[in-house]
Amino acid sequence: MTESELGAWMAYLKATHLLERRVEEQLKADSGLTHAHYEILAKLSASPDRQLRMTDLARKLVVSKSGLTYQIGQLEKRGLVERTACPSDERGVLAVLTGEGMRCLEKTAPGHVAVVRAFLIDQLTPDELETMTRIMSKAAAAMAEDAGNAAEEKGRGGRLPRTVPPPDTRPGGSPFGPSPDGRGHSPRSRGSSIRTDA
């Protein structure tokens, strides 16, 4: 990576880690939810009849089916979500937001929105927000396309495509990949340093 590339990446990591920490603290204090739990409740609340097939919910949340099953199990124990058979698909399972789950979401949402607004939305101008939306949407689309290609290739029994170049593991090679001139380098060797204090 060049200095500017590494700077962008490190700034993104620091901002997202700090914001995620703030969000988790608020959710835990207000309702004992995790961010993953909150997203599940929010997705269900916005769906027709406040329910979704588990496979559809996993896709919307961009999580694995097994991971979602675990999270739903935790929410079921609190009476916030329940699972029922899907009437249109005998093999399908619906995740349904309960009345208690909706009340929990309504209690928690104002504080959640306030944190996101205070530490992200209000820190940016309208133009910056539009730029951020465009950039993140572009990155998400690229990753979704890559994941789709990988799944298709795996389904055909082939090797998974690798679109990310591997790090240079040769002596003196760089874990940050090749520099624009084709030679591996680390940011430190180009006059910059890596900060580890978030």
TrEMBL record:
A Pfam family matched in the record: MarR_2
Molecular function (Gene Ontology), one example: DNA-binding transcription factor activity
Annotated segments matching region Disordered: 146-198
Alphabetized PROSITE patterns for the sequence: HTH_MARR_2 (PS50995)
Domain of life: Bacteria
Residue ranges of every copy of the HTH marR-type domain listed in the record: 1-141
Ranges that cross the membrane: none
UniProt xrefs under InterPro entries: HTH_MarR-typ, MarR/SlyA-like, WH-like_DNA-bd_sf, WH_DNA-bd_sf
Any one of the GO BP annotations: response to stress
Amino acid composition bias (Low complexity), ranges on this chain: 189-198
Protein's recorded name: HTH marR-type domain-containing protein
